[in-house]
Amino acid sequence: MVSVIGFDYGECRIGVAIGMPDAGTANPLTTLMVSASGTPWNEIDEIIGQWHPRTLVVGRVEHDTQDQGRIKRQIRNFCKALQNRYRLPVETVDEAFSSAQAYAVLKELRVQGHRRKIRKTDIDKASAAIILQTWLSSNASPQTGRTVS
Fold first, then answer.
1. What sign does the dihedral 44-49-50-52 (CA atoms) show?
2. Spatial CA neighbour of 32 closest among 135, 128, 144, 114
3. CA–CA distance, 53 with 95 (Å, rounded to integer)
4. How does strand 90-94 pair with strand 55-60?
5. Residue 26: which of 109, 98, 82 has the closest Cα?
6. pLDDT tens across 114-131, in order?
7. Are the C-beta atoms of 123 and 2 separated by less than 8 Å?
8. What pLDDT, on a 0 to 100 scale, did the predictor assign at position 28?
């Protein structure tokens, strides 16, 4: 089955999600911790090796943040590094408050009794799933709902 991997890049953590274009679904996978030594490439290598994605999707910042220029530059560099390292297409999607959306979804699950404490790592991987779902939705064929190749 064809897969796509989504990333919610952050300076401290990187949320990761897996998507199945044929099903049109994205699900949280994991959150990777970014150490002082930089991007956790070994862990990303393992994820890429396990899922064999055809495309990588990264959330990009379009809205105003305190360090907008710096984080935009870091995301651009992360995208370039992904493309150079894995030789896969890397696409970006406006992450437009995906972390706030992820928190709201997790909070609702907690209210319904499906979750306990909401951790930042849960928000990051849920945010990556929202980013990836946005990409999947914008790349779906209107007739079939499937991703256009």
1. positive
2. 128
3. 20
4. parallel
5. 98
6. 657 767 778 788 889 989
7. no
8. 92
The amino acid present at 45, given as its one-letter code, is D
CB neighbourhood size of 39 (10 A): 18
Residue 73 tokens, joined: 């530059």
> What is the spatial distance between Cα 92 and Cα 138, in angstroms, rounded to a whole number?
12
Tally of residues, the chain: 149
Q: What is the DSSP letter of 34?
A: P
Q: Say which residues have a Cβ less than 8 Å from residue 144's Cβ, sequence separation at least 6.
A: none
For residue 80, give every residue at least 6 positions away whose Cβ sits within 8 Å of its Cβ, in sequence order, or none: none
What string of DSSP letters covers 107-140? HHHHHTTS-SPPPHHHHHHHHHHHHHHHHHHHTB
- The residues that bridge with 34 in the sheet, in sequence order, are none
